[in-house]
Write a structure and sequence with these properties.
The complex is a heterodimer of chains A (about 375) and B (about 300). By secondary structure, chain A is an alpha/beta fold. Chain A is built from 14 helices and 15 strands. Chain A folds into two domains: about 220 residues, Response regulator (Rossmann fold, 3-Layer(aba) Sandwich); about 150 residues, Rossmann fold, CATH 3.40.50. In chain B, helix 1 crosses helix 9 and helix 2 crosses helix 8. Chain B has about 300 residues and is mainly α. The chains are: A alpha/beta (about 375), B mainly alpha (about 300). At the A-B interface, helix 3, strand 7, helix 9, helix 10 and helix 11 of A face helix 1, helix 4, strand 1, helix 5 and helix 8 of B.
Chain lengths: ~375, ~300
């Protein structure tokens, strides 16, 4: 046994020696991940990473991208802290990464982006949705998720189609997502002839909506629809207290509420409509992906962030194939020219954008405790409010 | 007027939760001069206790006490493992130890349970409303107010009617004398932690019932609020903690209710300004004890 281990050690050492000079210099694509394994972004970054790792595994099993560029991930935990994200990004650049991936939030992504932009390393945020993020950083920064203003436009179109005239928006100044998405919705909704009859605010994590709910109940005329980008724990607390107070106004939400907790609320959330990055209709690529994920890990994929992380692997594969090399600037230019990359959540396009990809948004209604697809697609450019 | 009464009920419910948490902090502080920032993790532990008891098939009515027991056990364990060895050390050491305990427990939750929030299936019967004289009272809200009152009365009885309770009140005054009277220090401190665990567990269950999920970081914000409440009331004063909790709850709800829309985003700033005003008027807090004697 011992000699076996020894032999294994020696072979590993030898193969390491034999291989290491080659890939590190020319062939191996180094992807640096300055993302959160702990802290408040971990719930989004961890599943995204799982998806990405699955894509990388598949690509490497075929000898790497286009059969010649195997991928190596270097992962550093940022503890969900913006300063630590910048530090991790600097360390990864020093290790010579060709592509950088940053957390699911615009703030740490912008902090890291300042460094990667200067070093000219193409950078993706796993799932930040703030449309101004790439504009704030520069032309090496890219998103990997439908932007807030795109989601808002889809929701506003739906509200108008349903014949809603008066809307109430509930927002929180604590994050760009919870503040701007309802504001984009208001812009879009007003542009189409709707009226905003009230605005409420909340503090994230506060989860006491008694005061706000009492105000909504007293509104005259009552709103036809309530739109919010609140997510856990605020969204469940809000809808529970709203419905408890006897208000049954329809609710429009955003992709943040697509979680088991929301569905665990049972009939309280019946009829809620929200945006999602993808929808697994039978036989769709997403359904196949979910089945594959379950088979490989034994776990039900409980969030779209897994598929979204997997799609980032596909985007990188497409870009490196197109650049036919691993030189960062060439990869950056290739990303910016990508069109309709077939992701499992739908086609992904970067050409003609300012860094946030054009990708389809699914509109989902909660029905009988399950998901029902309302519509899926990319909204018309004219409908999307300016970032 | 109806709106005012409705908001009063809202304030009572939120203030009650803050009061329970602040009381948990104050019980431990009064005995050993420690501000336990890991108090929030006791709430989280109660939440996970609830989830896992339900997963094991325990009926909901039994899962609730089980969740509270988990919080009590963790509180006692915390004392035994982390805080006993630094008992009597400087306030800074105690504070840093509690931060460390809090951070370690949070990372353990994230890496060994789940970084993503886990849903708790709260029975639908609890989502209903009771209507009393035109006032809508959510069932969870009503339970939360009742439980707060019951806990406060119960704790009061314990502190005044039992030997251990009296020993705890005496220890808050002067621990050295209490030990000279033949009371075991370990018993008093462990009881203080058990009580704080009980209070955190109950508050945790009420908190989770509102939000419907448990995530590893959920304890941070409420414990911060409880800390503010305890400061307003006067650190170490039990009645002060309760008063502070209700005052903070009332302030938050009424600011939310009656601030004009354009100023609403500054609600927390206004609340904190009020806290500063209270502290300018009473620097030791509203109901401060005159002396703080440490172990």
């Amino acid at each position: 046994m011992k000699s076996k281990i020894k032999a294994l050690c020696i072979t590993t050492m030898l193969s390491g020696m034999a291989l290491s000079p080659l890939p590190a210099t020319a062939q191996e694509l180094l992807i640096g991940l300055a993302t959160a394994q702990t802290g408040n972004l971990a719930p989004y970054d961890q599943p995204s990473l799982k998806g990405l790792e699955m894509a990388v595994e598949e690509i490497n099993a075929t000898g790497g991208i286009a059969g010649k560029f195997p991928i190596k991930l270097i992962i550093k935990d940022t503890r969900s802290d913006a300063a630590q994200t910048a530090l991790a990004a600097q360390e990864l650049i020093d290790q010579g990464v060709n592509i950088m991936i940053t957390p699911c939030d615009a703030d740490p992504s912008i902090a890291a982006g300042q460094i990667t932009q200067a070093a000219q390393i193409p950078t993706f945020s796993f799932c930040a949705t703030t449309p101004t993020m790439p504009i704030a950083v520069g032309d090496y920064m890219f998103g990997n998720y439908p932007a807030d203003n795109v989601q808002a436009a889809v929701l506003a179109n739906h509200a108008i189609e349903q014949g809603y005239k008066r809307a109430y928006i509930l927002k929180s100044p604590d994050s760009a997502y919870t503040l701007k998405l309802p504001e984009y919705f208001a812009t879009s909704f007003k542009a189409k002839g709707g009226e905003i009859v009230g605005e409420g605010t909340f503090s994230m994590g506060q989860q006491d909506f008694g005061a706000e709910v009492t105000k909504i109940k007293a509104l005259n005329p009552a709103p036809d629809v309530i739109m919010t980008a609140a997510y856990e724990p605020d969204f469940p607390a809000f809808i529970r207290q709203l419905r408890s107070a006897g208000v049954d106004t329809p609710i429009l939400g955003s992709d943040g509420i697509d979680s088991p907790t929301t569905f665990g609320l049972g009939k309280l959330v019946e009829g809620v409509v929200f945006t999602a990055a993808g929808f697994a209709t039978e036989g769709s690529p997403l359904a196949k992906f979910n089945a594959k994920y379950k088979q490989r890990t034994g776990q039900e994929p409980d969030t779209n962030y897994i598929a979204n992380g997997y799609d980032l692997g596909k985007v990188i594969e497409a870009a490196v194939t197109k650049a036919d090399g691993i030189e960062p600037t060439a990869i950056r230019n290739a990303i910016a020219s990508l069109e309709k990359v077939p992701g499992v959540t739908g086609p992904i396009t970067y050409v003609g954008t300012q860094g946030m990809p054009l990708r389809s948004v699914a509109l989902v209604r909660i029905k009988d405790g399950g998901r029902e697809l309302v519509s899926q697609g990319v909204p018309a450019a004219a409908d999307v409010p300016a970032p | 007027m109806d709106m005012f009464l409705q908001q009063l009920v809202n304030a009572l419910s939120l203030g009650g939760t803050y009061a329970l948490l602040a009381l948990g902090l104050a019980v431990v502080f009064s005995i050993m001069g420690l501000i336990n920032f890991a108090h929030g993790e006791l709430m989280t532990a109660a939440g996970y206790g609830l989830i896992f008891s339900l997963l094991l098939g325990v009926p909901f009515a039994l899962a609730l006490p089980a969740a509270v027991v988990v919080a009590i056990l963790l509180a006692v364990l915390m004392e035994r493992v982390a805080f006993r060895s630094v008992r009597g050390a400087s306030g800074t050491t105690l504070l840093l130890t509690s931060f460390a305990v809090s951070a370690i427990i949070r990372v353990l939750f994230q890496n060994f349970i789940s970084a993503r929030p886990m849903a708790v299936r709260i029975p639908m019967a609890l989502s209903g409303t009771i209507e009393i004289a035109g006032l809508h009272l959510g069932i969870i809200q009503a339970i939360s107010i009742l439980v707060t009152i019951a806990m406060l009365v119960g704790l009061n009885l314990f502190l005044h009617r039992t030997v251990l309770g009296r020993a705890m009140r005496a220890a808050a005054e002067d621990f050295a004398i209490v030990r000279l009277m033949g009371i075991r220090a370990n018993a008093v401190v462990a009881t203080a932690f058990a009580i704080s665990g009980l209070l955190a567990g109950v508050a945790g269950v009420l908190w989770v019932a509102q939000r419907g999920s448990v995530d590893p970081l959920m304890g941070f914000l409420p414990v911060l609020k409880a800390f503010i409440a305890a400061i307003i009331g006067g650190l170490g004063s039990l009645s002060g903690a309760v008063a502070g909790g209700f005052l903070l709850g009332f302030t938050e709800v009424f600011l939310q209710a009656f601030l004009p829309e354009s100023l609403l985003s500054y609600r927390d700033a206004f609340a904190i300004i009020l806290v500063i005003a209270v502290l300018l008027y009473a620097p030791q807090g509203l109901l401060a004890r005159r002396t703080v004697v440490k172990l």
